[in-house]
Amino acid sequence: MIVSDATMRALLEAGTVRIEPLEEYQLQPASVDLRLGDHFLKVDENTADSISLTEPVRYIDLRAQQIVIPPQSFLLAVTRERIRLPNDLTAFVEGRSSIGRIGLFIQNAGWVDPGFDGTITLELFNANRLPIRLTAGRRICQIVFARMDRRAARPYGGKYQNQRDAVGSRVYQDTA
């Protein structure tokens, strides 16, 4: 079941869910808008001939209040907000409609698992033929929360727990 704004308000007030920092205008009827942070990672395509699933990816680390994403380019970004979920709530991140309408595709890889604590790394792709300029602090995506039928038996404790900046792929740490 998707969590409503009234339920989200109660969860936030009780401290069951944490979203910090959070302004009232970010709370939507069935989601919470998240803002763009100031940390970005760009694949360093000038020093690698390919990307492998078994080796770390080289990234260029950028910290900026404004960034331009060239056409047909990929960039990792971070939310300004840190999220902490209880063990019976999951979430997923979607791009905002207004942002998608200018050709910027936004997602995070998969679900935000129960028990997750940290900022959200966003995957940004400019599908437009023009560069897109982004400014830190602007609403960029929305997070939708859903109640699970019961508490997770094994809440999240994986390789992205407690991240604070954009974090590149750690797929090379997988066992298979």
Secondary-structure topology with pairs:
Blueprint: H1 5-14, E1 18-20, E2 32-43, E3 59-63, E4 66-69, E5 74-84, E6 89-95, H2 97-100, E7 104-107, E8 117-126, E9 132-135, E10 139-147
Antiparallel strand pairs: 1-5, 2-3, 2-5, 2-10, 4-9, 5-8, 6-10, 7-8
Gyration radius (Cα, Å) is 17 Å
Tell me the helix content. Answer: under 10%
Unreliable runs, pLDDT <50, ≥5 residues?
A: none
Our count of helices gives 2
Please outline the major beta sheet.
8 strands, antiparallel
Q: Output the structural class.
A: mainly beta
| Strand-residue proportion | 35-45%
Mean pLDDT: 94
The CA-CA distance between the termini, in Å, is 32 Å
CATH H-level superfamily:
Deoxyuridine triphosphatase (dUTPase)
Describe this structure in words.
It contains 2 helices and 10 strands. It has 176 residues and is mainly beta. Strands 1, 2, 3, 5, 6, 7, 8 and 10 form an 8-stranded antiparallel sheet that branches. The chain has a two-stranded antiparallel sheet with strand order 4-9. It has one domain: Deoxyuridine 5'-Triphosphate Nucleotidohydrolase, Chain A (Distorted Sandwich), CATH 2.70.40. Helices cover 8% and strands 39% of the residues. It has helices at residues 5-14, 97-100; strands at residues 18-20, 32-43, 59-63, 66-69, 74-84, 89-95, 104-107, 117-126, 132-135, 139-147. The model has no long low-confidence stretch (mean pLDDT 94).
